[in-house]
C-alpha cells in the first residue's frame, strides 16, 4: 500500500523531471511520520540518505526496512546538540520536532529546543557543507488566525499567544523560521521554509499523547469506542493526504529559483471537526457514539491554507479527496 502511494508521488515529480538521484541528503526527524515517507521516497529515487532521529516521537519501525539499503544510514542523535559529519551533504531537511498538541503539555522544552537549537545546528551543518536547507514549519505560526485571513496566505503574520499552552510549538516554529532567514541573510545560505498544514495517512501514530484527531477518530471508530470531539466540533482544519504533502515538500526542496521562499503546503478543503468525526464513523462502519469533551485552551477556530503561491511557483496542488485519503488511512490502520 505504501508502495502504491510512493509510486503516485514518483509519477507526479517525474512528470516535471524532479529528481534527487545522486544527492547526499541529511534528514533530521527522519523516523517520524512525514520524515520516514521522505526517506522512503528519496531512497527509491536514488539519493543517499542519512536519517537522524532520537526517537522522541519517531518510531524505529518506520525505517527498519531501509536499514539494509546501502544508500541509507541511520544516526541516533538529538539534533538540539551539536554533531559533526565527515561526509559532505548536498541537502538538509530539518523535520525533527514533536507535533501533537498533547505533547505540548508534556514536552514543551524539547519542542522549543528542536526548533531553535535544533534548526541552529542544522543551519550550521548547511553552512559548513554549503548545502541547501529546507525547514519544515507549520500552519501553527498563524496561531488562531483572524477570520478575514482564512484561507491564510503566507503574508499573514499570525495571531499567536506566546505564553499559552501552544506557545512552545508556535513560537518555537516562528523562531525557527527567523533562524533560517538570519542564516540566509547573513551567510547567503540557500534555504526554503514549508508551512505544513494538518497531514494524515499511514504511519501516523494514534496512541496516547502522540495521537492527532484523524488517527484517534479512526482507532475509536474501528474499536466502536466513543469518538471524542473537543468543543462543539465547529472548529475547522484542512486535511492533506500524505502523498500530496510529501510531493509539495519535495518540489520545494528540489526546485531552483525558489531560494528564500516560504510556502504553504496543505489542502484547502476546510472541514469542521464534527464533520470529520461523522465521515470517519461512516467510513469505519462504526457503531461509535460521537461524544463532546471540553475544547482545549487556545485551540485554533479555523485553519485553511491559501495555496496560490504553491500552485504558482511549485506547480503543485492537492489531488487526494478527504474521503479517498481517509479510506486509505483506515485500511492501513486495519492491517497495521
Ligand atoms: N480534536 C478532537 N478530538 C480529539 C483530538 C483532537 O476534537 O480526540 C480536535 C482538536 O481540538 C482540534 C482538531 O481536532 O480542534 C485537530 O486536532 P489535531 O490533534 O489534529 O491537532 P491540531 O490541528 O490542533 O494541531
Describe the structure.
This protein is of the alpha/beta class and 336 residues long. It contains 11 helices and 13 strands. The strands form 4 sheets. A 7-stranded parallel β-sheet has the order 3-2-1-4-5-6-11, with helices on both faces. The chain has a two-stranded parallel ribbon with strand order 7-10. Strands 8-13 form a two-stranded parallel ribbon. The longest helix is centred in the middle third of the chain and has 21 residues, at 167-187. The structure holds uridine-5'-diphosphate (UDP). Uridine-5'-diphosphate (UDP) is lined by residues 101, 198, 212-213, 216, 228-230, 235, 237, 273, 296, 299.
Task: Give the topology, please.
Elements (H helix, E strand, L loop, with lengths): L1 H14 L8 E5 L4 H12 L3 E6 L18 E5 L14 E4 L6 H6 L1 H8 L1 H13 L2 E7 L28 H21 L3 E6 L2 E2 L12 H10 L4 E4 L5 E3 L1 E2 H13 L7 E4 L4 E3 H11 L6 E4 L14 H7 L7 H14 L1
Short description:
By secondary structure, the protein is an alpha/beta fold. The chain is built from eleven helices and 13 strands. The chain has a seven-stranded parallel beta sheet with strand order 3-2-1-4-5-6-11, sandwiched between helices. A two-stranded parallel sheet has the order 7-10. It has a two-stranded parallel ribbon with strand order 8-13.
From the structure above, extract its key features.
336 residues, alpha/beta, seven-stranded parallel β-sheet, two-stranded parallel sheet, 16% strand, globular, binds uridine-5'-diphosphate
